[in-house]
Amino acid sequence: MDLTILNPEIQEFINDNIDKRISTLALQKNPFPDMEWIAILNQIEAKAKAKDKLPFWFSTKKIIYPSKISIEQTSSEKTALHKASIVSGESLIDLTGGFGVDDYYFSRKVKTVVHCEINCELSNVVKHNFEQLDAKNIICYPGDSTSTLATLNQKWDWIYIDPSRRNDAKGKVFLLKDCLPNVPENLDYYFKNTNAILIKTAPLLDISAGLLELKHVKTIHIIALDNEVKELLWEIHSNYSGEVHIKTINILKEKTESFDFILNDQANSPTYGLPQKYLYEPNSAVMKSGGFDEVGLSYNLDKLHKHSHLYTSTKLISFSGRVFEIQNCIPYNKVEMKAFLLNKKANITTRNFPDTVENIRKKWKIKEGGSIYCFFTTDINNNKIVLICTKTK
């Protein structure tokens, strides 16, 4: 780790050029001959990425950044803060430490946190950064985490793992066994060292596939940020054999939306109905959960169709997702489309509909944007319909 990058003049240069294009800066002459130009450019690019994602790191002096890719792959502060609400106790070991954002927030809830990172250079950078962030209860161990786990030889309140896909797994269906570390293979060994494990996976992982690979799953947390699913968290406890709880959370700028249910627990079937006054579209975390029947039952809403995943009611309710007021419900045919939408401006969504948004826009010359929201979908009678709506929130 080259601390030359912390030279006050270099740091000032980095901060002054945060908003500049790297491609333009790269053509300039390096004003600091004692430091590699590529290293300075990397700090500028990585710090720029951290501005919105890691505001605490961004605003803290003397932080050293890894590659831009490492910043892109790390948890955001908002998702890390929520993750920390799951754990507690005296000790936690992170077997895949990375840039250490999760561990910083874990350290607010757990007395001692151990950060393991196989990349020794990155481990040294993270250790330096924790000192700048005044995180005094985090210990950094460079090297293989399995060896560290064996060497420390103690019982942990939590083990945290963020497995990464192996390079040779590209193009394959995403399975945990294709990641490093191989959690399904090592699960019994991990349980010799803890009774509680938290696993972070990419949203690409299919929930049913994950449940086939893992055992003792108590809760699956689905975390979305600004309606984009960022990660799945698998909370597993040794000897647990009960129901699997699904917890969804969508962290928005003004509020947080949550919807929870027990997997495969519905005793009743949802009700179905034709469009009424209001239309409800679940947020991305709820959509990822697959709890479509549970949404209808929990909120007492009618589903438009088994496969449409849109809901309706006569009265306005608070909901985990977007809510619209239906202005018109028209059959999808030439006469109605010409009368209501030809050459108009509208936001288009398709749900359980045979045509794409792009083709619909092209066919009916509908421009993007405006305050009208159109849902092209299928109703309970298998009719193709268009719901012309305005947003309520």
UniProtKB/TrEMBL annotation:
GO MF, one example: methyltransferase activity
InterPro entries with a match to the protein in the record: PG_1098_Fer, SAM-dependent_MTases_sf, Thump-like
Pfam families: PG_1098_Fer, Thump_like
One GO term (biological process): methylation
Entry keyword Methyltransferase: yes
Residues annotated as domain PG-1098 ferredoxin-like: 278-318
Occurrences of domain THUMP-like (ranges): 321-391
Keywords recorded for this protein, A-Z: Methyltransferase, Transferase
Domain of life: Bacteria
Protein name in the entry: SAM-dependent methyltransferase
Organism: Flavobacterium frigoris (strain PS1)
